[in-house]
Amino acid sequence: MLSVTNLSGQSEPITKYSGYERHEEVNGSLELSFTSFFHADNPGHELIEEESIVEKDGYEFRVKQLSANGLSKQVIALSTFFDLNGVLKEDIFAGTKTFDEFATWLFSSTGWTYENVDLVGNGLIPNFGDGNVIALNKILTAVFECEYQILPNNVVRFATQMGGDNEAQYRYGNNIKALSKKVDTTKLRTRIKGIGANGLTVTYTSPNSSTFGERDAGTITDDRYTVADSLTEYIKRQLIDYPEVSIELDAIELQQKEVGERVWLIYEPLGIEFQTRVLAKTSRIPETKSSVIIGNAVPRSLSDILTSTKIEVDVNKKQSQSSFEQTNEQISLKVSETDYNGDTIASKLVVTPTAIDLLSENINLTGKVTFSSFDASLQSTVYGKTDSYDVTTIVGNTVTTGYINALNITAQSLSTTAQINVGTDVIIGNNLYMTGSGSSTADRVILFTGYASITGKASNDSILYSAFNGHTFDGEVYFDSYSFVDFDNAEVRNFNMPYHTHSQYSLTSHTHTAYSLTSHNHGNAYIKAGGYDAELRWNGSTGFGVYINGGYVGGLFV
Predict the structure, then answer these.
(1) Can you say how many angstroms the Cα of residue 28 is from the centroid of all Cα atoms in its chain?
(2) Which residues contact 550 (CB under 8 A, 6 or more apart)?
(3) Closest to 161 (Cα-Cα) out of 83, 257, 56, 259
(4) What is the pLDDT of residues 476-520, one digit of tens each?
């Protein structure tokens, strides 16, 4: 039953009409036309007006063209699917995604649902969004190289190709008779060249070149292709190597076929046989008046004109594991591969309005790199602790900055003209050199503030003081009771022994060098020389007792 609903929501059946035609094309177009007559038994006639909705068998059509007089109204209506031409998707949902991801986002909150027959894999659509649903649907079908069909109850079906392939064969002028035909050879070409990545070059020549001769279609360049077979298949699909033919037929058998179904056509006027499709089907009442169009070129229809849009998209055949994601909030770029161990190696770049995140195993920067600002925590570390170095620069192998905070710094050499402050331990593997340029001893000094010591860490460690011109100790030098000081070939002067300790001082010589030992404090001193042990013992009042090898030999008085 045919019924109509006006803009006020009032619905009535249409009972008196003629010229009913429902026209469907393989490109998704779906139209309805008929003539309604003024009659007391036709309550829907008065409700037929601009933008009214006409319903038939679960399909809804919106009136787009209306011609009326006192007796009748001629109607041309489009499927309400094309109302989505006025529904804007303002967000961006771009990047590398599956068909289902794109379609789910596209048809959300539209009142329409979709079916996916056989579309798999990912497609790349940059800047997908910020457009009406119909225009975005055209982009979606172009990227995934698929077709769509409008079904009853607001459902859209997507498939690589609509219709089946039953190997049906028809001979023009024999078992089919044309109501009309159109043949166009303007775009016919029989040879095409393709250039891919890394200099990959292929050429495809159509078998139809034997009929039409060699007609070059030019060169297609696409660096997404790295495999010859894939590139050949791609350029082959771009080649139109047969006449563009559309033939309107009234064969009863063809009327039962689906839109999109493949049939073989033997076209004797040109002596060729090629596979065509049921490109369009017009259903009429009665059904015997229905007709189909077979061929490979569909004439433009009203829906094509009303929904036309410029589409500029790449065919998604890139042979690499890369993805591009784009939304209103961010853009993400990812390139990955799987190594021989099965591990995934990936580099990723994410750009948002406030940040750029870069992740990669290796990051190579060529040219000048300038940092104009740092975050607050890094500013307090770098800017707040510098004097004249307010900017960190990297030129070649030189880093110029104020402070470097690090857990570990490894270098072959470390040079500075300023002091080095170390808060904990300094571990030196071999030698510590002080190479000041001045002549004064003050130019090369190790200074200890507060209580400090130079200590051999292990029990068997020793400390060797060696200098070409001798050692000078300015101040007191203390050796505890466990110390052994070896002055080999050395002269000791102004050696003071404190009274408040019981330290014993042993000066050992392996040569006949003379030693001079002087004491002004109250303590004992021991001298070993020439195999003798000499001892000076303070007698507690006026001088020292002199002992050789433990025996008293005399006194020294002060």
Answers:
(1) 35
(2) 533, 535
(3) 259
(4) 666 665 566 665 555 555 555 444 444 444 444 444 444 444 444
Closest Cα to residue 225, out of 321, 336, 145, 319? 319
Residues 6+ apart with CB under 8 A from 494: 518
State the Rg of the chain over Cα: 49
- Report the distance separating Cα 484 and Cα 508, nearest Å: 9
Question: Tokens at residue 40, please?
Answer: 């007391």
Write out the E strands in 416-530. Answer: 506-507, 525-529
Cβ(297)–Cβ(182) under 8 Å?
A: yes
Both tokens of residue 57? Answer: 């068998």
Q: Taking the C-alpha atoms of 77, 80, 83 and 85 in order, what is their torsion angle to the nearest 10 degrees?
A: -90
Give the C-alpha separation, 544 to 522, whole Å: 10
Distance CA 363, CA 350 (A): 15
167 backbone φψ class: left, alpha, beta (φ>0; ψ -120 to 50): left
H or E element, residue 397: none
Cα–Cα dist 293/20, whole Å: 18
Using alpha carbons, select from 525, 542, 544, 543 the residue that is nearest to residue 534.
525
pLDDT for 178 equals 61
* Segments making up each domain of the chain, as ranges: 1-116+132-160, 165-306, 329-359, 432-558
Where does the pLDDT of residue 370 fall: very low under 50, low under 70, confident under 90, or very high at 90 and above? confident
More confidently predicted of 45 and 274: 45
Coil, strand or helix: which one is 76? strand
547: left (phi over 0), alpha (psi -120 to 50) or beta: beta
Let me know the angle formed at the C-alpha of 377 by 375 and 380, rounded to the nearest 5 degrees: 105
Which residues contact residue 54 at a Cβ distance below 8 angstroms, ignoring those fewer than 6 apart? 2, 3, 4, 14, 32, 48, 60, 61, 62, 63, 75, 77
Between CA 222 and CA 318 the distance in angstroms is 9
Can you give the pLDDT at residue 516? 42
Task: Name the helix (H) or strand (E) containing 520.
Answer: none
Determine contact, residues 16/42, Cβ cutoff 8 Å.
yes
Amino acid symbol at 80: T
In this prediction, residues 166-174 reach a mean pLDDT of 71
Contacts of 547 (CB under 8 A, 6+ apart): 534, 535, 536, 537, 553
Q: How far apart are CA 125 and CA 325, in angstroms?
A: 9
Three state DSSP letters for 301-341: CHHHHHCCCCCCCCCCCCCCCEEEEEECCCEEEEEEEECCC
By residue count, the chain amounts to: 558
Q: Which of 246, 207, 244, 199 is nearest to 225 (CA)?
A: 199
Chain Cα centroid distance, residue 80:
39
Structure tokens at 193: 């060249």
d(CA 470, CA 472): 7
Q: Coil, helix or strand for 174?
A: coil
Instruction: Judge whether 178 and 247 are in contact, CB under 8 Å.
Output: yes
Neighbours of 43 (CB within 10 A): 17
Q: Is the pLDDT of residue 254 over 80?
A: no
Q: Cis before residue 43, ω within 30 degrees of 0?
A: no
